[in-house]
Amino acid sequence: MDFIIQNILNAMQWGSFYALIALGYTLVYGVLRLINFAHGDIFMVGAYISFFVASFLISPFTGLSPAMAFIITVPLTMLLTSLVGVTLERIAYRPLRRKGAHRLYVVITALMCGLILEYSNLALLGASRLKFPELIEKQVWRFGDVTLTNLKVMVIVTAVLVFLFLQWVVTRTRVGMAMRAISYDKFAIPLMGIPIDRIIVVTFVLGSGFAGLAGLLFAMSYPVLEPFMGMLIGWKAFIAAVVGGIGDIKGAFVGGFLLGFIEVGVVTVFPSTYRDLFAFTILLLILWIKPTGLFGIPQSTKI
Amino acid sequence: MKRTLITIFITAIAVMLAVPAMATQTIKIGFNIPMTGDIPEVGEGSKNAAEMYLADVNGAGGLDVGGKKYMLEFIYMDNESKADSAVNAALKLIEQEEVVAIIGPNSSKQAVPGGGTANENRVPMISPWSTNPNTTLDRPWVFRAAFLDPFQGPVVADFAAKKFGAKTAAVLFDVANDYSVGLAEVFKSAWEAKGLGPVVAYESNGTKDQDFSAQLTTIIKAKPDFIFVPENYNQVALIIPQARDLGYKGPFMGSDAWGTPDLVKLCGEQCNGQYFSTHYAAAGAKGATKVFIDRYMEKYGAEPADYAALTWDSIGLMVEGIKNAGVVDSNPRKMRKAIRDGLAAIKSFDGVTGSSKFNEQGDPIKCAVVVKISDEGTFVFEESVCP
Fold first, then answer.
1. What global pTM score does this model have?
2. Where in this chain does the entry annotate a coiled-coil region (chain A) (predicted)?
3. Which terminus of chain A is less hemmed in, N or C, by CB atoms within 10 Å?
4. Nearest-CA neighbor of B282 among B300, B308, B253, B263?
């Protein structure tokens, strides 16, 4: 029993990261109908930004205590990472949108932007890995054979809170209403006096900001940073978002946790070689039965 | 006038032909090393050692082969620490650069396929760091400077049984890495052959994995006396803290892939107090080894890790092979054959990682050391195990 509970906790932590990244994919897709393939790399950039911010804050130069540094690192990382996201939108996606380029070209541009982020990081910082400093003192709680760390709890709680916040933004606020409106008809919306570019910027701020937060938490949980850390987890989170029904906040959240549970579950029972095979076979079956994903609504034009 | 032009033209062609002929007076050796990818530290250390050797030889006017001096030329090719890139890098070195011999790849994951390429193309190759038997098995053109896993596995098993008084063991290995898989298998059979107790958990992970909680939960549930982790240092730095978070309090045991200063940087205090088997220990070295370590430290400001020392020895072996060849042929094919025969003729070799004898497979028989990671995060010599 303890063994099962422990693995459920393991899966919830791992699923939280998929969910946090999947939320960013789905948010941008929900508004722009654009698969922002650079999102996994924005997550990586977020982890690096948090590394530099945290290292600077705990250095003797500023001399803050690690806990204080953590409190400042969170908003600063989110802010700086959202700037990266907005910059990408500004220099890569918006010009294409203005010229009325087909969505396919924008998706390819996103892929290229991701690669540019990865390799500029490699060129700038070199291939050697970085060690993320310890910001909060780790506490291990034991309940029989089940162990829980404060970091694990924080990751899971954050994922839930971010989900609730985004759900609230999209369904209950004026900005959210505008986002949904753009996804319905982006040609009619400007005629209604809604500033389409500003709403899109808000979308990228939210998506990238939470990718930055995910990057920070990931770096704290798995404190070895490398330029390609966002690639695989980004792709998998994208698949999680699709299985959940891309464009739907609830779907990304559920899809992320679902993938986390399947992966940990498979490794618990079978050798790890079977993990991705089983995980993606199950996801394929889900899409086979319901091609729009668990919570998705059929749409006439999709990529 | 016309004749003068023709004379100039012919002279020009003669000069152009003569220049490459003169350029062949250098001996071109290729390096197939991981400058980027999973283990960039390894590539950097190998290159540092090679540059030091090159400066030594060329600074003294070149290498003396059969009474004539030849300059060495080293060409470094990045294999991104991937198996397919290691094959491409080897082919590039052989076909485009026309090197007469190759040093590297280091890790067995690249050295096994890279060795195949070198063997098929009939180019002598020495892998400094690879411990998997398949790298040199039935490959007359491939040699190595390190001991083999069938030796390293029992060293780990014996040490753990003695030091920890262990009865049961668990293994966590990287299923996509030839080195890790091979060593895990050898260790498992060595442990079970001892008859102390079973290997209670035998779990695997992927190379790019960051979360090991599922595997570690299974391992911890089986309550092993120690966990053997034959993985690259970057994964070790994630595995040990995660195991501690999950409540594991026992010891870990590692293999030679742990031996980089980066392990301590990435892992922090959590790795202190653990043991691993490796090729040499920098602390407490004597003689030629100490001279090498001191010079390396002076030049690069860090202790040379085992792969740097083994690269140094590999170049030493290669030079020995070239000297045995006796002549330098401008035809790379003939030269490669001569070097291979020269290498095969080496019976024993004294290097900075100790002395070794070579068996008929071209594999060295040499001692291993077990190193402890001290509380200050340095690698301290614990004991030496000889075959």
1. 0.83
2. none
3. N
4. B308
